[in-house]
Each structure stands twice: as structure tokens, then as C-alpha cells.
């Protein structure tokens, strides 16, 4: 019976806490709440995003805040685990009484928040979610990632478009990717694109995330002798794949496409010369065609604080977008002069937004009206130099034409010298 | 007599919980409590095979995920009522448990544990390569907009998990005080001696493994509705295995109160840590506490309490 | 049928990999008999006992107990039929009290055989403890017992299964002379109640005093059988023990 | 797609990978096979070794393998310390099986989280002049990144084998696993011998870690991927046999490599776990191991 007494007391305590929940006050600062991956698998991106968000909040507050009220960030570590997300968002909304919520980083951590957001009819901006809204069809969800209206295919469209323009046109393609959420989605899109361009798929395999050595895979690809190779890999695999390809001497006419991680300065520095000639997706690079207002200032601030925060030293990949998704939200609040979720959502849906990463307009499904997935080629790379990646001319934009900043060195082998 | 008193308390708790959903609209506590109750079920289930019988299962995550995926696939395939989900997840988990039980035929101690680890990986590989279950891309499960009696699905899940937790505890308590429980304890202490003293060890181990597996599967059944999006890597997360083993070890693995205490304490600490301090630090604390407990308090909190009281048996 | 055959081992062999531990061993134990099984180290005594109690399966031969063929039965069912054993190295249920240790065979073996008979498991267990001389320790945890107490617990626990045949596997090894006498007295008292006992022992004094009939094993084969006097004077036995 | 040249190269790649697996598994073979200490945290110690190599490499530009060798004494002492705790808390009380497992489970967490607190969860890699280059041997191409770890693993295997068979302490370690009495006759203290052997097991993790980070980038929780593999190898190798471990590791490496190339990489991991389950179910004494 004594044991049971302990149990009853514990549950009783829990109930009491529930009854005496702190009641937040409505006035005071505007609270923006979110969960972010500060530990776990995607913490590298999550922490970088957090720094960008903090910079945004500081800048806004310096200018007097939103609607004359200061902005306060309320955030919790979702540990890169989907299971923590529902708890975090209900805590933010019910206990902390935040006024606005935005998403954490990545599909896995956006999706579990959506049912809560939808139930309460809130406006929600997602950071780097791949086709999350396909399942929910929620009108007030917006995705900050320039993948375009049909993200899966738009992701690799540029890569295949570039291939299609070459003469003679490549005829065969090898598809390889990580057997995980991103890899599979990107491969599915690449399959469609390959079909659209009349390419014959000679290799199409996924590898498990725990793969140690990629030599056997690269050998298998080499044996099929493809004209182009599309890779949809996560950061460690991108490095492994590239190293194995380099060692084995795999030299198709075009190599890369969907390799995550080649956008990170740390990995770029580590791989150095091996990157030469690789054509890969990117969202923003320091090329003259992409000098949007404010981005240089932002990156300067970010880079000064990157070391202390333990995040990517250059911050070209996630941080500008993390800044932008709050920029969009902030602009909507200012424009509607309210915190009314309906009005904010309506505004975001119907207007164009001028941000750090260029002008953004959303399609009815919440994705960008037009894809801006860049295809960049690594050119003139040296070993062991971080600095070069902060300068133009090393990640040259090949596609889309609107942002083009250089010409493709083709085939891949020629770039490799 | 004592059993009836506990039953009364359990019923009172459920009534209280339902009443609470009427009073407070604060969803956070339901979500938080849901997670803790889920760990009560998992820890209790683990303990039936691990604590009572002495077979350490490192594959709890596999059982949990299998239950969750069973539910998600059923929801995707047919419009099934909720109790069917629980039943199906329990059945699948129980069958997996049964096969695990047969493993004990050949494997003892560490070898068994390593096999459970491998079993979880094989299961994950199967799900990853199963297109209908979403493969590695994951599977979405939409919550129904309405549910009978409750104004909100989360409140419903909260009450369901509370009932499951109480059910698991009742099962564990019943086993502990039955002939079955004494037989399992004999197996844990010395399997060879138990067999020679007339205990049908294989049958008892099969029962324990099946019950344990079924409960873990059931714990996973409401999970698709809770997260709405599952993919193998996070559903098969090692955390479930660690927690469902750490909680009984910290609470005390020989009685049903141990996993409950461990789950409530560790689960609450983790919930609080998630929304306060850095969670990496929080995980470190779990690791240190776990190591400290196995070294300093081998019988968990229950053991400490008993030792303080002078070795009297509760 | 003055005293029927209780245990009938017919041509049992057991191999471990290439090593033949038992070679077509046969022996019979009668109801209520005091039976000694001796042999040098590694002669296969414990292997034979394991084959009889069911801890090991035999590769060849047949084992019958009280008219049943038990060759393929799992150990717990043999216990329910009436074969109980103690272990050479005591294997108590360490998380339980002494009394609780006895309740396991009482519940699982004795009461599976005689359903309903003597529903009071605890009273029955106390009775056995009294007989063995452990009643003072009934509520003590088994983990804290001394060596002699552990040996007594082994015997008491085997008794709680209400056996017709008790196999005592070196219950006296390492005990003092006085303690050996104590165990011997207990075994004789148990035998008084009509239980057949197989004693495996290295302490010759005890075996000779106790046994009505003795079988000697050497290198997995039976080399002699007879009363204590015959065995002592058997040259083959002497050779097995002392070498050439 | 099938050609002799490809087959040859794939098998060689598998052998190189297998050699590396051997380096990671030797510590398990020592601890688990010979000492009966179920150190499931061994892969975590390997990751610790990777980070040690990483820190020294990025700070002072020291060659990763040299760093791995340099840290071996430190890891050796760490191993002795861990064993002392393990002995005092579990082995002495004869409670090693269940609680010992949980103890090492906790150690995995402590190592992983400490690393990610200190160095973050980003992937880390090392620089060395030869990483990324390859050389040819007839029709076979060998990458330094894989060939050097494999060679180092072979050296380590040989060294351990010689240590166990030729030295007094080595024989004492072997004796401790089989016969405490013989050990006492040799006049050695089993606890000290076991501590020594466990220290050596952990010391191999230092070198294995350096090899790992040379093969590919490393993050704190990557060790989990190896738990199943290394136990599969230790069991397959016959629990405690150094030569058996090498053979088992090579078999696994070649099988994974072949599966990966000719069938599909997504099943490569399932192969090692499938083999583990099969071996455990059918022949727990291992493929090349001692009986019983």
C-alpha cells in the first residue's frame, strides 16, 4: 500500500501542476515560438538556423519591434526527434502563450506540428520541408525552400535540363541515393525527370544510411557505364561517395545533382579538389547574380558569431532561409497590422515578399510559385581553403538561366584535368 | 482486498483524468502525460521479460515501432475503429514476442540480448524496403477530426494511454503475484534449477515474451495519431530501447512499482528538460544516472527504500 | 515384484562433439533403494545424472521411470513424474527466501502431480524445512546462506517436489566431517519415508555407509556393480581409482 | 554488368573493408570472447578514438594513424579504469550479466553525449596527404584511404596474436578465460590480468577510431551502426580467437561488398545482421570456433 501511496502522490502532483498552470499575460512582447533541432541528427542545420533567427530578432528589435512591441523568441530543442514536436508546440501555444509559431528544420520535424497548427487555424511557415503539405492541403502553410510547386521533380529538374542541352545528348543515367526520406523523394523525382528527357536508367539503387564504404556501389555504377550520375545523398555519404568515385576513377559526363552537404563550408574544405567539376544543387551562392539586398550584411553578422555558436562558418545553406522565413512572417504582421492568424495567412498567400533570398511568391499549395533550385558547378577549387568558398567564381551557377553566372565545363572529366 | 483497493484507485484515476479534460483546455499536459504513460507501458512490458524473467531485450524499439506501423498500415488500408488498432498491434507485437521467446531456446544471457538488437535492425530494414508502409520516406496518418465524447483527439489519446498504462500495470502486478510470476522469478534466478524443480521454463518464457511483446506493440498503436508522420529512423529510435530498459533499472526491476516509478521520474525529468535546459545535457544526465544506479543501487529506488527499511519484503 | 524397478536406464550414450561421455550405460534403481554412483573425475557420473534428470538429452538408449518412457521428456515433466535432484554446485533461487525456494517445486511439481492434495504449500514446505533442520532460516534470503545451509536447501528444495527418486549430486563435497554426518543423517531420514535415493559422492566413507547397492563408472562406461563390500574388493574399481 | 575485372575489384574492396572491421572487432573479441566482459560500448570507445585523432590532427596536423597510436596508452589506462569499476561493481558480486550490460549501455550514452556537447553533431574528418589517392596493382585499384587501415589492422591482429601466444601476460590472459586454477598456479592475479587485457582491448579502439575517421567522416552516434556488426564478427570468429576474428571480418567485408555491388546496397546491412542471427541460432560457437 505504501508503494501505491507514492504513486498516487506523483500523479496527484502532476494533476496539480496542470491546474495551476502559469497564465501568460497578453500584452508585452510578441512571442514567436518554435522547436528547433539543437541536438541529434540535424542539429548542425538547426543550430545554424537558430543563430539566423536570433539575428533577425535582434535586428527587428533594434528597429522598434513588430507593431511597436518587442519580439521575444521562445524555443525548445526538439532533439531532431519527431516525437517531441507535438509536446513542444502545445507547450508553446498553451503554456507559453506565444503569438506566432514557425516550424523547426526539415520535413520530419515540420509534419508532426501541422495537425496542432491546423486544429487551431494558425499560419505556419515551414523551413526546408519537402512536400509536407501534400498530405494536409492546409491553405495557411507556406514552405521556405525554393523547391518550387512540385518539389520532388523540381529538385533535380535543373540537373537533367543541363544534361539535355549537351551535344551529343547523354543517353544513360545512373541514379543512387540514401535509403531515407530525402534520398527516396529525390530519387523518385529524378526518375520522372530522366523519363521526361528520354534517358535510359541503367542503375537505380538506394543504400542504407549506415554504409561505411561506397567503393562497391561506385564500382557497380561504373560497370554500367552511365553518361550521367545523379546522387541523392546525405552529408557523410556525399563525402564517401565523392571519395570513392575519385579513387575508382568514375568519370561520367555529369556527376552530382542532389548531394546534401556539399553546401556546407566544413565539408567543402575537407573535400577540396575532389569537388572540382561536380554539378550539384544549391540554394544560394556568393555569385554576382544572387546579390540580394541585405544578404551580405546578414552573412557578415552570421560569420562573426558562427564560431562561438559552433555552426557552419560560412552559412550559405540554411541560415539565409531561416532569416527569410521570419522576415516573411514579420512583414505580414506589419502589413496587416495585426496578429490575426487568418489575416496574416491571407496576406502571405496573396502578396509577393521581398526577402534576403530574393522575391518570394507562394503557390496555392504553399510551395514557391516557381522553383529556384540552382545547379552550380565547382570550379577552380584548391585544397584546404575555406576562404575560396566565400568568394565568387568557385560555385558557378549554371541553371536556371535567370541566375546564370558562368559556363559549364563539360564533360566532367575535362573539369577534373 | 488490496487488489480491489487498487482497482478502485485506478478507476478513480481514469474518472479524474476524464474530468480533467473537461476542466482544462491546456493540451500540453495531455501530450506530456501521454509520453510518460507510454513509457510506463513500455517499461512495464520490458520488465516482464527483463526484470521478472531475466532476459534483457535491447529491441524494445522494434516492438514499439512494429505496433505503430501495424496501426498506421491498418489506418491507411481500412477505416478501422480504434480498439481494432490496439488489438492488431498487440497481436503483431505478441507474435513477434513469441518468436523472441523461441530464441531463448538456444540463446541465453548476452547472446539473447545481441540477437534482440539484430532483430530490431532486421525489422527496420523490412519497413524501409516496404513501399506500402511508406518505406524510408515515411507515412502520414491523419487524426480524425472528431471523436466520441471528447472535444479533442489529443484528450482522447491521453485517456487511452492512461488506461493502457493502468492495464499494463495491472497485468504486471497480476503476474508478479501469481504462480506464473514465481515461476518466472525462478527462471531468472537459475533457469536450470527452475526446470529441474518442475517449472516448464520454455512455456513460461514464451508466455512472458508474448505478453511483453504484445504490451509494447499496444503502446505503439496510438503513436501514428500522436505524431501524424512516422519514418523508420525515428520510430525505431534507440531511445525507446534505452528508456524502456533504464526506467525499470532505475525504479527497481523486481516489482511492478519499479518501472512505474522509473517511468514517472525519468519521463517527467525528460519532459521538463526538453522545455528547459539543453537536452544534450539531459541525455548525459540519463546516462550518468543510469550508470550510477546500476553501480550504487543495483535494485533501483525500490531496493534503496527496502534497504532503508531493513530488508523487509513488501 | 517385491520391490519394483523405479528407474531403468538402458544403453544410454552421450557424445559431446567427438568426445564420448557415456557409452551404452545401463542401470536399475528399485523403489525405496539407497543407490550409490561412483567413479573418478570425468567418468561421466554427472553426465548420466543430467541425462536422467533431463538437463541433457541422450543420443542413444532408453530411460524408463515408474513404467513411463521418459527418454524424450523435458526435465520439468520428469520432475513432475517424481525425479528430483540437487546440484553439485548449489543453485538456489537467490532473490527468494528459503521458504519461497521450496514453494517453486511445491507449486510446480508436487501440486501438478497431486492437484488439490494439501493445498497449503507453505505448511508443507515448513514441514520439510523442519525435517532438514532449516526451519530457523525459513524467512532468510537464500543469498545469505552458508555452504552447509545451501546444501541443505538443495535437498529440501528437491524434497518439496515430493519425489519418488531423489538424486543427490555430491551434496557433501567440501563439508567437514561433522557436516557430512549431518547430511548423511538427513538422506537416511528421507529414505525412511520411502524415497529412493541415488547418491553421487567422492567421500567413500559416506557412500559405503549409505548405499545398499553401488554402480561404478569409468571413462563413460559401467565397470562394476554390487554391494559396498563387493565394490571395495573389486580389482577393476581399484585400478580405475588408482591407475595401474 | 558482370565482369571478372569488376568481381576482382569488388572482392578486394571487401577485403579492405573486412580488414578494417577486424580492427574494430578485435577489442570485442578480447573483452567479450576471452574475458567474458560484454562491452557493448566498444564501438563508442572507437568513436572516442576517432575524435582523439581528429582533435590532434586538426590542431597540430599530426597524421591520424600516428595520433591513434599515440593515444593507445591513454586508452589503455582508461580501459583499466573502466574494468576496475566494472569488477568492483558487478563481477565481484557475480551480477555481471544483466547489470553489466546496462552499465555499458549507460557508457555509450555518456561518451556520445559528451562528444556532441564538446564537438557538436557535425561530421568530422581528418586530413592526410594520402587520403583520396589510389594506386594500382595489376588490374586492381587500391585506395590508400582503405588500404592503409587494412594494413594497420593486419599489423594489429598479428601483434595481438603474438602477444597472446608468445608472452607471459598473453598466456595468462588466455588462461583467465579458461582456467582460474592454472592462472593461480602461474602466480598471477586474475583481476589484474583481466584489467590488463581489458585495457589492451580499449587501446585497440584508439587505433581503430583513427582508421575509422580516415575511411569516412564521423559523428558522435555513428558507433551504434557497428554494435551489431562487431558482435556478429566476434561470434562468427568463434569468441576469443584472434585469427577467427580476422577471418570472420574478411568474410563479412567481402559479403557486404558483393551484396552491395551485385544485388543492391540497401540489403548490405541486413546481410551482416542476418548472418549474426543465423549463427546465433544455429551455431553459437561460431564458424571457426571452439566447440561447446
Overall strand count of chain B: 2
Strand order of the largest sheet of chain A: 7-6-8-9-10-13-14
**Which blocks of ≥5 consecutive residues of chain A have pLDDT under 50?**
17-26
The average pLDDT of chain A is: 88
Weakly predicted, low-confidence segments of chain B: none
Spell out the CATH superfamily of the largest domain in chain A.
Response regulator
| SSE pattern of chain B, N- to C-terminal | HHHHHEHHHHHEHHHHH
Helix and strand pattern of chain A: HEHEHEHHEHEHEHEHEHEHEHHHEEEEH
By helix and strand content of chain A, what is the structural category? Answer: alpha/beta
- Based on the coordinates given, report the CATH architecture of the largest domain in chain A: 3-Layer(aba) Sandwich
What fraction of residues of chain A sit in β-strands? 15-25%
Q: Which of globular, elongated, flat, extended, rod-shaped describes the shape of chain B? A: globular
Record field, number of beta strands of chain A: 14
CATH class of the largest domain in chain A: Alpha Beta
Helix content of chain B: over 70%
Radius of gyration of chain B: 19 Å
Spatial shape of chain A: globular
Largest sheet of chain B: 2 strands, antiparallel
Note down, in words, how this protein is organized:
The complex is a heterotetramer of chains A (417), B (314), C (244) and D (292). By secondary structure, chain A is an alpha/beta fold. Chain A folds into two domains: 26-144 and 293-356, Response regulator (Rossmann fold, 3-Layer(aba) Sandwich); 151-289 and 373-415, Response regulator (Rossmann fold, 3-Layer(aba) Sandwich), CATH 3.40.50. Chain A has helices at 2-19, 43-62, 85-95, 107-110, 114-119, 133-136, 151-165, 181-196, 215-224, 235-248, 265-271, 295-309, 319-336, 341-350, 412-416; strands at residues 30-36, 71-77, 100-101, 124-127, 141-144, 172-178, 200-207, 228-233, 254-259, 279-282, 353-355, 358-360, 374-378, 395-399. In chain A, strand 1, helix 2 and strand 2 (71-77) form a beta-alpha-beta unit. Mean pLDDT of chain A is 88; it is low at 17-26. Chain B is an all-alpha fold and 314 residues long. Chain B has a domain at 26-237. Helix content of chain B is 75%, strand content 1%. Chain B contains 15 helices and two strands. In chain B, helix 3 (60-77) runs antiparallel to helix 4 and helix 3 runs parallel beside helix 5. The mean pLDDT of chain B is 84. In chain C, helix 2 (75-81) crosses helix 3, helix 3 packs parallel to helix 5 and helix 4 (121-132) crosses helix 5 (147-160). Chain C folds into two domains: 1-82 and 164-177 and 198-237, Rossmann fold; 92-163, no CATH class. Chain C starts with a strand and ends with a helix. Chain C has 244 residues and is α/β, with parallel strands linked by helices. The longest helix of chain C is centred in the middle third of the chain and has 16 residues, at 98-113. Chain D has 292 residues and is mostly helical. Chain D is 74% helix and 3% strand. In chain D, strands 1-2 form a two-stranded antiparallel ribbon. In chain D, helix 2 (42-60) packs across helix 9, helix 6 (144-166) runs antiparallel to helix 9 (190-215) and helix 10 (224-236) crosses helix 12 (268-282). The N and C termini of chain D lie far apart (44 Å). The chains are: A alpha/beta (417), B mainly alpha (314), C alpha/beta (244), D mainly alpha (292).
Amino acid at each position: 500500500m505504501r508503494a501505491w501511496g507514492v504513486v498516487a502522490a506523483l500523479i496527484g502532483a502532476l494533476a496539480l501542476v496542470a491546474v495551476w498552470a502559469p497564465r501568460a499575460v497578453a500584452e508585452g512582447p510578441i512571442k514567436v515560438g518554435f522547436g528547433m533541432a539543437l541536438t541529434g541528427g540535424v542539429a548542425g542545420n538547426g543550430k545554424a538556423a537558430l543563430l539566423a533567427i536570433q539575428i533577425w530578432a535582434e535586428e527587428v528589435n533594434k528597429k522598434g519591434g513588430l507593431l511597436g512591441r518587442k519580439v521575444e523568441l521562445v524555443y525548445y530543442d526538439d532533439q531532431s526527434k519527431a516525437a517531441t514536436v507535438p509536446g513542444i508546440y502545445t507547450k508553446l501555444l498553451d503554456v507559453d502563450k506565444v503569438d506566432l509559431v514557425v516550424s523547426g528544420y526539415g520535413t520530419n520535424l515540420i509534419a508532426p506540428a501541422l495537425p496542432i497548427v491546423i486544429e487551431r487555424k494558425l499560419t505556419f511557415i515551414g523551413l526546408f520541408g519537402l512536400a509536407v503539405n501534400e498530405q494536409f492541403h492546409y491553405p495557411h502553410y507556406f514552405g521556405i525552400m525554393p523547391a518550387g510547386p512540385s518539389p520532388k521533380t523540381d529538385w533535380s529538374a535543373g540537373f537533367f535540363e543541363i544534361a539535355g542541352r549537351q551535344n551529343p545528348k547523354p543517353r544513360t543515367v545512373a541514379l543512387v541515393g540514401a535509403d531515407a526520406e530525402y534520398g527516396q523523394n529525390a530519387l523518385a523525382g529524378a526518375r520522372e525527370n530522366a523519363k521526361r528527357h528520354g534517358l535510359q536508367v541503367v542503375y537505380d539503387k538506394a543504400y542504407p544510411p549506415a554504409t561505411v564504404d561506397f567503393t562497391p556501389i561506385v564500382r557497380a555504377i561504373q560497370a554500367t557505364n552511365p553518361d550521367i550520375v545523379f546522387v541523392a545523398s546525405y552529408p557523410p555519404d556525399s563525402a564517401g561517395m565523392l571519395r570513392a568515385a575519385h579513387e575508382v576513377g568514375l568519370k561520367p559526363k555529369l556527376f552530382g545533382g542532389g548531394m546534401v552537404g556539399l553546401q556546407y563550408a566544413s565539408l567543402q574544405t575537407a573535400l577540396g579538389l575532389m569537388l572540382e567539376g561536380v554539378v550539384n544543387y544549391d540554394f544560394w551562392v556568393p555569385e554576382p547574380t544572387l546579390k540580394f539586398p541585405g544578404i551580405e550584411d546578414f552573412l557578415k553578422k552570421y560569420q562573426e558569431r558562427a564560431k562561438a555558436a559552433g555552426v557552419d562558418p560560412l552559412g550559405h545553406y540554411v541560415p539565409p532561409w531561416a532569416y527569410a522565413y521570419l522576415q516573411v512572417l514579420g512583414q505580414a504582421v506589419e502589413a496587416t497590422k495585426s496578429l490575426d492568424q487568418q489575416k496574416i495567412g491571407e496576406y502571405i498567400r496573396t502578396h509577393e515578399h521581398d526577402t534576403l533570398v530574393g522575391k518570394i511568391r507562394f503557390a496555392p499549395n504553399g510551395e514557391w510559385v516557381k522553383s529556384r533550385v540552382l545547379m552550380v558547378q565547382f570550379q577552380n577549387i584548391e585544397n584546404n581553403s575555406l576562404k575560396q568558398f566565400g568568394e565568387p567564381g568557385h560555385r558557378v551557377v549554371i541553371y536556371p538561366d535567370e541566375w546564370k553566372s558562368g559556363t559549364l565545363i563539360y564533360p566532367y572529366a575535362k573539369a577534373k584535368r | 482486498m488490496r487488489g480491489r483497493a487498487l482497482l478502485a484507485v485506478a478507476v478513480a484515476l481514469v474518472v479524474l483524468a476524464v474530468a480533467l479534460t473537461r476542466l482544462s483546455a491546456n493540451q500540453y499536459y495531455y501530450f506530456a502525460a501521454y509520453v510518460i504513460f507510454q513509457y510506463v507501458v513500455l517499461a512495464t512490458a520490458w520488465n516482464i521479460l527483463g526484470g521478472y524473467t531475466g532476459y534483457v531485450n535491447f529491441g524494445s524499439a522494434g516492438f514499439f515501432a512494429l505496433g505503430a506501423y501495424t496501426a498506421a498500415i491498418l489506418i491507411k488500408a481500412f477505416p478501422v475503429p480504434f480498439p481494432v488498432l490496439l488489438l492488431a498491434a498487440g497481436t503483431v507485437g505478441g507474435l513477434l514476442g513469441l518468436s523472441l521467446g523461441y530464441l531463448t531456446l538456444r540463446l541465453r544471457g548476452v547472446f539473447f540480448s545481441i540477437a534482440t538488437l539484430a532483430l530490431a535492425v532486421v525489422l527496420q530494414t523490412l519497413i524501409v524496403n516496404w513501399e506500402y508502409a511508406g518505406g524510408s520516406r515515411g507515412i502520414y496518418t491523419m487524426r480524425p477530426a472528431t471523436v466520441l465524447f471528447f472535444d479533442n483527439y489529443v484528450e482522447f489519446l491521453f485517456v487511452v494511454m492512461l488506461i493502457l498504462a493502468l492495464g499494463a500495470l495491472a497485468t504486471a502486478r497480476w503476474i508478479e503475484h501469481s504462480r506464473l510470476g514465481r515461476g518466472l522469478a525462478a527462471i531468472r534466478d537459475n533457469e536450470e534449477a527452475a526446470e529441474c524443480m518442475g517449472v516448464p521454463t520454455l512455456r513460461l518464457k514464451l508466455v512472458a515474451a508474448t505478453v511483453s511483446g504484445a504490451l509494447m506493440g499496444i503502446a505503439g498503436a496510438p503513436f501514428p495519431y500522436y505524431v501524424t508522420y512516422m519514418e523508420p529512423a525515428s520510430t525505431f529510435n534507440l531511445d525507446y530501447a534505452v528508456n524502456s530498459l533504464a526506467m525499470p533499472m532505475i525504479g527497481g526491476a523486481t516489482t511492478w512499482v519499479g518501472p512505474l516509478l522509473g517511468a514517472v521520474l525519468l519521463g517527467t525529468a525528460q519532459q521538463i528538460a526538453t522545455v528547459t535546459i539543453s537536452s544534450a545535457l539531459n541525455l548525459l544526465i540519463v546516462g550518468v544516472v543510469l550508470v550510477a544506479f546500476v553501480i550504487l543501487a543495483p535494485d533501483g529506488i525500490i531496493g534503496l527504500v527496502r534497504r532503508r527499511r531493513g530488508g523487509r519484503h513488501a | 515384484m517385491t520391490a519394483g524397478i523405479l528407474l531403468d536406464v538402458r544403453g544410454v550414450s552421450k557424445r559431446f562433439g567427438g568426445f564420448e561421455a557415456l557409452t551404452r550405460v545401463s542401470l536399475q534403481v528399485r523403489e525405496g533403494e539407497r543407490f550409490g554412483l561412483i567413479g573418478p573425475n570425468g567418468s561421466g557420473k554427472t553426465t548420466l545424472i543430467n541425462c536422467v534428470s533431463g538437463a541433457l538429452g541422450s543420443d542413444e538408449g532408453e530411460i524408463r521411470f515408474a513404467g513411463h518412457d521418459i527418454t524424450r521428456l523435458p526435465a520439468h515433466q520428469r520432475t513432475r513424474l517424481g525425479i528430483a535432484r540437487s546440484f553439485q554446485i548449489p543453485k538456489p533461487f537467490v532473490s527468494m527466501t528459503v521458504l519461497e525456494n521450496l514453494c517453486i517445486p511445491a507449486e510446480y511439481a508436487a501440486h501438478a502431480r497431486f492437484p488439490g492434495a494439501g493445498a497449503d504449500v507453505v505448511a508443507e514446505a515448513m514441514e520439510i524445512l523442519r525435517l532438514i533442520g532449516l526451519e530457523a532460516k525459513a524467512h532468510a534470503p537464500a543469498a545469505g546462506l552458508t555452504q552447509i545451509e545451501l546444501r541443505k536447501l538443495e535437498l529440501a528444495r528437491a524434497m518439496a517436489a515430493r519425489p519418488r527418486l531423489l538424486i543427490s549430486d555430491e551434496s557433501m563435497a567440501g563439508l567437514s566431517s561433522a557436516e557430512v554426518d549431518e547430511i548423511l543423517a538427513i538422506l537416511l531420514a528421507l529414505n525412511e519415508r520411502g524415497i529412493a535415493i541415488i547418491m553421487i559422492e567422492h567421500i567413500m566413507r559416506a557412500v559405503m555407509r549409505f548405499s545398499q547397492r553401488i554402480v561404478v563408472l569409468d571413462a563413460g562406461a559401467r565397470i562394476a556393480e554390487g554391494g559396498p563390500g563387493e565394490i571395495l574388493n573389486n580389482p577393476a574399481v581399484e585400478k580405475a581409482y588408482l591407475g595401474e | 554488368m558482370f565482369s571478372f575485372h569488376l568481381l576482382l575489384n569488388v572482392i578486394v574492396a571487401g577485403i579492405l573493408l573486412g580488414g578494417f572491421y577486424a580492427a574494430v572487432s578485435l577489442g570485442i573479441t578480447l573483452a567479450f570472447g576471452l574475458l567474458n566482459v560484454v562491452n557493448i560500448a566498444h564501438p563508442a570507445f572507437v568513436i572516442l578514438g576517432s575524435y582523439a585523432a581528429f582533435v590532434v590532427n586538426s590542431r597540430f596536423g599530426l597524421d591520424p594513424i600516428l595520433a591513434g597510436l599515440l593515444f593507445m596508452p591513454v586508452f589503455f589506462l582508461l580501459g583499466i579504469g573502466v574494468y576496475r569499476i566494472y569488477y568492483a561493481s558487478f563481477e565481484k558480486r557475480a551480477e555481471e550479466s544483466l547489470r553489466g550490460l546496462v552499465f555499458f549501455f549507460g557508457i555509450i550514452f555518456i561518451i556520445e553525449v559528451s562528444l556532441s556537447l564538446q564537438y557538436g553533431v557535425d561530421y568530422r574528418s581528418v586530413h592526410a596527404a594520402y587520403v583520396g589517392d589510389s594506386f594500382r596493382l595489376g588490374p586492381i585499384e587500391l585506395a590508400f584511404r582503405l588500404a592503409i587501415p587494412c594494413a594497420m589492422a593486419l599489423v594489429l591482429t598479428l601483434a595481438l596474436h603474438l602477444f597472446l601466444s608468445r608472452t607471459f601476460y598473453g598466456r595468462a590472459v588466455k588462461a583467465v578465460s579458461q582456467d582460474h586454477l592454472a592462472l593461480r598456479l602461474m602466480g598471477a592475479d586474475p583481476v589484474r590480468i583481466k584489467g590488463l587485457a581489458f585495457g589492451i582491448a580499449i587501446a585497440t579502439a584508439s587505433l581503430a577510431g583513427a582508421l575509422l575517421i580516415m575511411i569516412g567522416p564521423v559523428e558522435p552516434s555513428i558507433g551504434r551502426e557497428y554494435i551489431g556488426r562487431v558482435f556478429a564478427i566476434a561470434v562468427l570468429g568463434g569468441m576469443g580467437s584472434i585469427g577467427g576474428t580476422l577471418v570472420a571480418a574478411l568474410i563479412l567485408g567481402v559479403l557486404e561488398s558483393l551484396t552491395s555491388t551485385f544485388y543492391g546496397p540497401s540489403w548490405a546491412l541486413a546481410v551482416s545482421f542476418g548472418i549474426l542471427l543465423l549463427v546465433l541460432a544455429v551455431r553459437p560457437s561460431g564458424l571457426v570456433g571452439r566447440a561447446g
